[in-house]
Write a structure and sequence with these properties.
Strand content: 25-35%
Organism: Streptomyces thermoalcalitolerans
Strand order of the largest sheet: 1-2-3-4
Radius of gyration: 13 Å
InterPro entries: DUF397
Distance between the termini: 42 Å
Number of strands: 4
Pfam family, one: DUF397
Mean pLDDT: 87
Number of helices: 1
Protein name: DUF397 domain-containing protein
């Protein structure tokens, strides 16, 4: 089993415990996403789908 290296959003700030966290699993090309207040609830998706989501969010923010 792979141990995931969780990274917090740069928008988390102040050491709060209400943060989005992601971890990349290179073994199966997936991204795991969770909220730090409920770390047992993890959403897993493909790296391609996650990249598409981030691209769409950035594009929408520029409009």
């Amino acid at each position: 089993m792979t141990t995931l290296d969780w990274k917090r959003s740069s928008f988390c700030g102040g050491g709060g415990n209400n943060c989005v966290e992601i971890a990349v699993n290179d073994e199966n090309d997936e991204v795991a996403i969770r909220n730090s207040t409920r770390p047992e609830h993890v959403i897993r998706t493909s790296r391609a789908a996650f990249t598409a989501l981030i691209t769409q969010l950035r594009t929408s923010a520029l409009r």
